[in-house]
Design brief:
Layout: E1 7-11, E2 14-20, H1 26-35, H2 43-50, E3 58-65, E4 68-76, E5 85-92, H3 101-116, E6 120-126, H4 130-138, E7 142-153, H5 163-171, E8 175-178, H6 179-182, H7 185-199, H8 213-220, E9 232-235, E10 241-249, E11 256-264, H9 273-287, E12 292-298, H10 302-310, E13 314-325
Parallel strand pairs: 5-6, 11-12
Antiparallel strand pairs: 1-2, 2-3, 3-4, 4-5, 6-13, 7-12, 7-13, 8-9, 9-10, 10-11
Length: 335
C-alpha cells in the first residue's frame, strides 16, 4: 500500500495532523488507552507491522496535536477475522473528546475501506462509554454481543482449593495434558480440528469463521504472544480430545496471561470439565511466574461466568461487539 501523506485540517478550534502511525507513538497511545481502560491491544500493532501481508491489510493512523498523539484509528483484517470483513477501531484521548477528532480519523480511514470492499466492519465499543457507543451507532454500527472482561490475581489463587474438583473430573475418566508435552505436527493439526469444531459452537461464530490450518497456526502457535506450553487439553478415557483451555501472553516477556478460549464438546458438558481445565491452566500459569490471568466471555453465558467467579475472577470491564453491514453499496458515509 502506498504511504499515506500526513493530512492537516481544522477540527473545531484545533489544527490536527493525521498521519500513519509509527512505533514511537506507542507511549502516547498506551497512556490514554490505559487511562480509558480501553480494550485496545497496542502490542498487536508492532506485531502486525512486522508481519505485513496482503491477506491481512491494515492502516493505522494517528491524530497529532502539538507533537503529541491525541487519537488513533485502525482499519484492517486481523488473522482471526472472518474473510471478507474488516476491523475498525477509533480511540481519542479522554481530554480531547467532543472536538471532532474521532470523526476526522474515521473519515481518514474511509478510502482504505472503500479500496478493500468489506462486507462488514467489525468494532468493539466499551460499555462504560455511552457517548462513544452512540457515536458508532450514528455511523451504522450495531451492537451484536455484550462481552465481559474478567481477571484474577494469581498470587491469591490457591490450586489446592480446586484439587478435589479436578480429582472428581479425573475419576470420571478425563485426564488433563499440557499441550507442550505432546506437541507434534500431528497434534497441532488435531488441536486445530478441535478448535474449529468448538469455535463453531460459540455465539460469535459465523459461516465464515473457519480458518485453514496454516492461518490458524500463524496466530495461535507462531505469533509473539503465543504460549502453547500453557494450553491444557482434556482427554477422555478412549483417547478422544474433548476440550481445552488456551493461554496466551499479552507480550512475550509479560507476566500477564489471557485465556482466549475454553471449550468442551457438547456431549461432555455439565461434568465440571471447564472448571477443571481453567483451574489446571491457572495452576500452570502461577507455577510459571505469571501474576495475573484474564479472560472474556459473553455476558449471557451464565455458566461460564459462574465458573470464572468460582475461580476467583472479578469483572474488570465490558464491551460490545459492533457490526456495520455494508450491504451491496459499501456505504461508509459520514454521519
Amino acid at each position: 500500500m502506498p504511504a499515506l501523506p500526513a493530512l492537516s485540517e481544522e477540527v473545531g478550534l484545533l489544527t490536527l495532523t493525521i498521519r500513519p502511525w509509527t512505533p514511537t507513538d506507542l507511549p502516547d497511545l498506551a497512556e490514554f488507552a490505559a487511562a480509558d481502560k480501553s480494550q485496545v491491544n497496542l502490542d498487536e500493532l508492532a506485531q502486525m507491522e512486522a508481519a505485513r501481508s496482503p491477506e491481512f491489510p491494515f492502516l493505522c493512523l494517528v491524530a497529532e496535536q502539538d507533537g503529541k498523539a491525541v487519537g488513533w484509528a485502525f482499519g484492517g483484517r486481523r488473522p482471526w477475522t472472518d474473510k471478507g470483513d474488516l476491523n475498525c477501531s477509533v480511540l481519542v484521548a479522554p481530554a480531547c473528546r467532543q472536538q471532532g477528532i474521532g470523526t476526522a480519523l474515521y473519515d481518514a480511514l474511509t478510502p482504505f475501506f472503500r479500496e478493500h470492499q468489506p462486507r462488514h466492519l467489525r468494532a468493539n465499543g466499551d460499555d462504560h462509554q455511552p457517548a462513544a457507543l452512540a457515536w458508532a451507532e450514528r455511523r451504522g454500527f450495531k451492537p451484536i454481543h455484550h462481552i465481559v472482561s474478567m481477571a484474577t490475581d494469581l498470587a491469591a489463587f490457591d490450586p489446592a482449593a480446586y484439587a478435589e474438583a479436578v480429582a472428581r473430573v479425573e475419576a470420571g475418566g478425563i485426564r488433563f495434558v499440557q499441550f507442550g508435552q505432546v506437541r507434534t505436527p500431528e497434534t497441532e493439526a488435531r488441536l486445530h480440528a478441535l478448535y474449529m469444531q468448538l469455535d463453531a459452537d460459540t455465539p460469535e461464530a459465523t459461516a465464515d469463521s473457519y480458518q485453514p490450518f496454516d492461518q490458524w497456526r500463524a496466530w495461535a502457535l507462531a505469533s509473539p504472544e503465543a504460549w502453547p506450553e500453557g494450553w491444557t487439553v482434556a482427554v477422555a478415557a478412549d483417547g478422544d480430545w474433548v476440550g481445552f483451555t488456551l493461554l496466551q501472553k499479552w507480550a512475550p516477556d509479560s507476566q500477564n496471561c489471557h485465556i482466549y478460549m475454553t471449550g468442551v464438546k457438547r456431549e461432555y458438558r455439565n461434568r465440571s470439565i471447564a472448571l477443571a481445565l481453567k483451574a489446571t491452566a491457572a495452576r500452570y500459569a502461577k507455577a510459571q511466574g505469571m501474576v495475573r490471568i484474564s479472560t472474556i466471555t459473553d455476558f449471557e453465558n451464565l455458566p461460564m461466568r459462574a465458573v470464572n467467579t468460582r475461580l476467583g475472577y472479578q469483572t474488570v470491564s465490558g464491551f460490545f461487539r459492533l457490526l456495520k453491514d455494508l450491504g451491496g453499496d459499501k456505504d461508509l458515509g459520514r454521519a
